[in-house]
Amino acid sequence: MSDLVLLLVTGVGLGALYFIAASGLSLIYGLMGVLNFAHGVFMTAGAYAAWLTMGALPGTWPMAGRLVIGVLVAVAVGAVVGLVVEVLLIRPLYRHHIQQVLVTVGLSLAGVAAAQGIWGADPRSVDKPAWMSGTTELLGARLPNDRFVYLLVALGLFAGLLALLHLTRLGLVIRAGVENRTMVEALGIDVHRTFTVVFALGGAAAGLAGVLHSQYAGAVSPAQGGSLLIFAFIVVVIGGMGSLTGTAVAAVVVGLVQQLANYYAASGVGDLSVVLLLALVLLLRPTSLKGATA
Amino acid sequence: MTSPTDHLAHTHTPSVTDADGDLATAARTAPGQERRPRGRRLLRALPAVIGLAVLAYLPYLPVELPGVLPGRVNAPGSMQLLATCLVIGGIALSYDVLFGRTGLLSFGHALFVAAGSYLLTISLSTWALPLPLAVLVALVLSTALALVVGGIALRVGGIAFAMVTLAFAQAASIIVMRNPGGVTGGEEGRPLDRDAVPDLLVGVANAPYRYWLALAFLVLAWVVVTLLVRSRAGHAMAAVRENEQRAAVLGFGTYRVKLLAVVVGSFLGALGGVVHALVLGGSNPHLTTSEFTLSLLVMVVLGGAGHRWGAVIGGVLYTYADARLVEVSNAAWLENLPDVVGQVLSQPLFILGSFFVVVVYFAPSGLTGLGGRLIRRSGTR
After folding, report:
1. Of the partner residues A110, A268, A271, the one whose CB lies closest to the CB of residue B353
2. What's the predicted TM-score (pTM) here?
3. Does domain B6-298 have CATH number 1.10.3470?
4. Domains in chain A: how many in total?
5. How many angstroms separate the CA atoms of A164 and A145, rounded?
6. Which of the residues A44, A64, A102, B269 could staple to A129 if both were Cys, CB 3.0 to 4.6 A apart?
7. What is the ipTM of this complex?
8. Structural domain contains residue A268
């Protein structure tokens, strides 16, 4: 029983991480049709920004305070990187979807290489607040505290994005844009500005995902963003591209499947079963992948 | 959502007439029959024959090319580098069957290359098969894998196809890294069983033979792709690339056409994996990574997707640059620049990635397209 509780909580915690990484991807894809391979670089940028910030702040400050500042810096850096990439590289290629993908592929290669050149290919260890490394006793299981942090952050992000989509004018434009972009343009709304905002939002979420993933792994490394990105892609595909709720459900399912299979089958089976899940979803419901409403 | 043909419609300026031409040719003329005079056809083939002769002669050329190659042209180091370039050029060509010729954006091509490579080393070492049988096993199993994966992934199109192929390749990468039963060797890779391979392909001194093997693979891949492109199936692929709906309306079974492209591309890719393992003396887990597929994509676009020489030139140049750009970090003019610039420029992938972005912007039909424009000869296809 306690094992199961532990697995469920860690699985949901992992799913929360996947959701944070995938939400920006899903929004960008749903609205703009851009498969953003540079999302991994946004995450890496966020992770390194937080790592540098936390290293630069005086060591006498409480760890949690430094982490919060690091997270804020990472979110800001992610948003700025997303903004710059959209304005400089994605916007001129408007309507050329494959070329947009190619540009983000080039960015992802160059970004990882740049990080590798500056900070080296080896993982650098990241400080973690003592409380987050500890455990809490619940229902007979010793649960790692950091999973609760990821879950809370993911819930906050989910609620925030839902509120943004459903309560604001910007959200209305985004939802309408996902549904039918041409129509929105025909109505005289500047969709381009919305694109920039969505890219910055996605970048901010990616920066957040980058920091939390580096906390999860206990280290930053140039290749980290890429490995999380693959699972984010899978989550986005299973959840139905462009659908935020679908992404959230898929993220939790993927996290749970991965943890349970890793424990009950063998280590490493979890990653495989996620891919099998994807193939299964694809065979049973190929239409769900063609995009949905936000 | 737009189909993957989107960019091609923009890169090939006369794309609409192009597709019409392809469809019309497919309808009117029998496969392989060209109405060009025989003499002109021979003349057109002349540069290729001369180039091939020069390449085949390189192992006899004891010339130093300072800065271009690490030693004499026929020194083992240079031969090995050139052989790797040629193999990767052929593998890039196999990826072009999917991307450039059929408009399928696959992110899982590495899966089939790795399958060829690993199945060869595993069947030689673990199953102790003789070399010809091992090659056969590797090719047959990889092609069967391509049928299954392609059959599933082609149920969706466009970007979703890209993601699904990526997921399958990732699964393979995970399996290889986990090293089940010790057959894949995990991060170390699997070395080639030297006793099972003819002596001519083993050892530093025999680098020219591996070079010729690589060259032979490249020529074979090029001939197969050229024949395929000229065949009826090749015209159907071009039709699917230019406008899949129209091709379907015209009565092509687009699913079957796309599956054929996946299977042929994967077969050539697996053959490339086999040759790669023989040339480099083993299977490397880098072949399974999504990074490798991405680099194939970069090669094809750099060279010019769907062009006669594009993928080969892109693959060769990319591999060469990746191996040689490290020299840039030792260049004297870098000393005056800040450290960070030097650190970043010492990464070949940074230079290649940035150059790739530039090419996507300013030369969307790739280097061969650019060259074709420069010598006022558009439409190299």
Report:
1. A110
2. 0.83
3. yes
4. 1
5. 29
6. A64
7. 0.81
8. no
